Amino acid sequence: IKQQFSDELSAVKSRDELEKIRVAFLGKKGLVTEELKNLRNLNAEEKKVAGMQVNMLKNEIEQAIVDYQKTLEEMEYQKQIESAERYDYSIPSEVEVGTLHPITIVQKKIEDIFKTMGFIIEDGLEIQTEYNNFEAVNIPKNHPARDMTDTYYLENGQLLKTHTSASQNTIMKKYGAPKPGEPLKVLFPGRCFRNENIDASHENTFFQLEGMMIGEDISISNLIYFMKALLTEVFQREVKVRLRPGFFPFVEPGFELDINCAICGGEGCPTCKHSGWVELLPCGMIHPNVLSMGGIDPDKYTGFAFGLGLTRLAMMKYNIKDIRLFNSGNLKQLRQFTK
Ligand code: PHE
């Protein structure tokens, strides 16, 4: 039996074949099992000797099968390795280089413009306290501007900032009152969130770019000067602007600066809601309450603030008619904008 087993085993090439041999020798009607059954025909003395021999044989065969199983597995593994794909690391990569997002391009451009005018760039948090987003910018509890449905609240009572103005207080506290002749000039771009119904001109996630200048005698004419400088640089042409009074609790007086819609040339399109004008630059003189909450004495200092709709500006600059493109991840379209 032993000889027969080792002959048959050496011909085995797969696990199926191995299993067949196992059954043939150790199965219910297997050769070894039959030998064990035959033991009952022997007398006690013979049984003892033969029993030992058959059991040894059985153990040997069991062990041989287990060992062979391992050998087979290793062989299969080797085969897999040999047939696996091979890489040639010396072949030049074909991965394309990405491009900046159009909003990033416009943001960087404006940052550069303001840096040359002495502004510091600050980064604001996206998750904010109610205090920073509302109270600190003069929007008390129960103020209509705090419309619950507009804001994404988190379970811990914080919220996703609804405007970049949420950073005003933190920045004022960080830099403190400006030194004489050295007004505080800060630019702070950021991603903002509002619970909007999304369509071609509304998104729940969009970018603003806010700026502040605080000093001893900052006036509306400073504000107008900087806004004009900004828009001329961005559009590289003389843009038509329209200034309307605007209400924001954190500025007094407040303005809405509109620019003529470059997409339709003033004819009317979905971007300008068919009016020919795009609301682009809300701004105003910082409210005394906001200054004092930021630790800056409103009797000594004044300042202006503006909150540029960066996403809208990018739409106008690149003639993008649907705001949804920006968050779409549609690279084919997004990578067209390079400058
Ligand atoms: N925070 C205002 C908004 O979200 C914009 C703004 C900023 C207005 C600064 C005036 C001054 O719309």
Structure description:
- The chain has 339 residues and is of the alpha+beta class.
- It has eleven helices and nine strands.
- Helix 3 (31-38) packs antiparallel against helix 4.
- The longest helix is centred in the first third of the chain and has 40 residues, at 44-83.
- The chain is elongated.
- The model has no long low-confidence stretch (mean pLDDT 90).
- The chain binds phenylalanine.
- Residues 163, 165, 210, 248, 251, 254, 282-284, 305-307 line the site of phenylalanine (PHE).
- This is Phenylalanine--tRNA ligase alpha subunit.
- Keywords: Aminoacyl-tRNA synthetase, ATP-binding, Cytoplasm, Ligase, Magnesium, Metal-binding, Nucleotide-binding, Protein biosynthesis.
- It catalyses: tRNA(Phe) + L-phenylalanine + ATP = L-phenylalanyl-tRNA(Phe) + AMP + diphosphate + H(+).
- Mg(2+) binds at residue 252.
> How would you write the strand order of the largest sheet?
1-4-5-9-8-7-6
Low-confidence stretches: none
Count of DSSP H/I helices: 11
Overall mean pLDDT: 90
Hetero ligands: phenylalanine
* General shape: elongated
**Over the alpha carbons, how many angstroms does the gyration radius reach?**
39 Å
Question: Order of helices and strands, N to C?
Answer: HHHHHEEHEHEEHEEEHEHH
Subunit structure: Tetramer of two alpha and two beta subunits.
Cofactor: Mg(2+)
Pfam families: Phe_tRNA-synt_N, tRNA-synt_2d
InterPro entries: aa-tRNA-synth_II (IPR006195), aa-tRNA-synth_II/BPL/LPL (IPR045864), Phe-tRNA-synth_IIc_asu (IPR004529), Phe-tRNA_ligase_II_N (IPR004188), Phe_tRNA_ligase_alpha1_bac (IPR022911), Phenylalanyl-tRNA_Synthase (IPR002319), tRNA-bd_arm (IPR010978)
